[in-house]
Amino acid sequence: MGKLGPQQGYEFLIASAEGLEAEAAELRKKATAIREAETKAKPLADRLVYAAHSRCSCGAGLAYDPAHDDPTSPHHGPTFWDCSAIILGTADKSVKHTGRLPFAFYEVKSEGQPSAYGATTRPSHAMGDVA
Ligand SMILES: [Zn+2]
């Protein structure tokens, strides 16, 4: 094998790698936008992410809206765990509820964590079968 030509030299390879990285970043951005649009299109009750084990003092599971950046979300704002009944507007206002728990300060295991082993506080009627 002889000396590398200009099409295989260091600068060419670096420029090619940078071009591919920019293309990959663009594809990731598009994929994320599709995922976000799909999430926002779901009814709130279906898209809520529930805690694996943690519940509000009223008994409802803690949850958050993965589309919390959507201004139309009742859970709009910085990410925090909240009583799912409060988010869904079905909470009994005569009982005490756990306050909002910001992600930055509280570790709450999500039903989506592999280490939750399928545990969820999601009510069974929230899985799609309308009661
Ligand atoms: Zn509650």
Query: Whole-Å distance between the termini?
Result: 72 Å
User: What proportion of the residues is helical, as a percent range?
Assistant: 25-40%
Radius of gyration: 22 Å
The number of helical segments is 3
Mean pLDDT: 88
Q: Uncertain segments of ≥5 residues (pLDDT<50)?
A: 126-131
Beta-strand percent range: 5-15%
How does the helix and strand content classify structurally? alpha+beta
Bound compounds, each kind once, are: zinc ion
Oligomer: single chain
Largest sheet: 4 strands, antiparallel
How would you write the strand order of the largest sheet? Answer: 1-2-3-4
- Pattern of helices and strands: HHEEEHE
How many separate structural domains? 2
Please provide the count of β strands. 4
Dominant shape: elongated
Concise account of the structure shown:
31% of the residues lie in helices and 13% in strands.
Describe the protein.
It is a single chain. The protein is α+β, with helices and mostly antiparallel strands and 131 residues long. It folds into two domains: 1-41; 44-127, no CATH class. 31% of the residues lie in helices and 13% in strands. It contains three helices and four strands. The protein has helices spanning 10-41, 44-47, 84-88; strands at residues 49-55, 61-64, 80-83, 101-102. A four-stranded antiparallel β-sheet has the order 1-2-3-4. It starts with 9 loop residues before the first helix and ends in a 29-residue tail after the last strand. The structure holds zinc ion. The site of zinc ion has 8 residues, from helix 3. Keywords: Coiled coil.
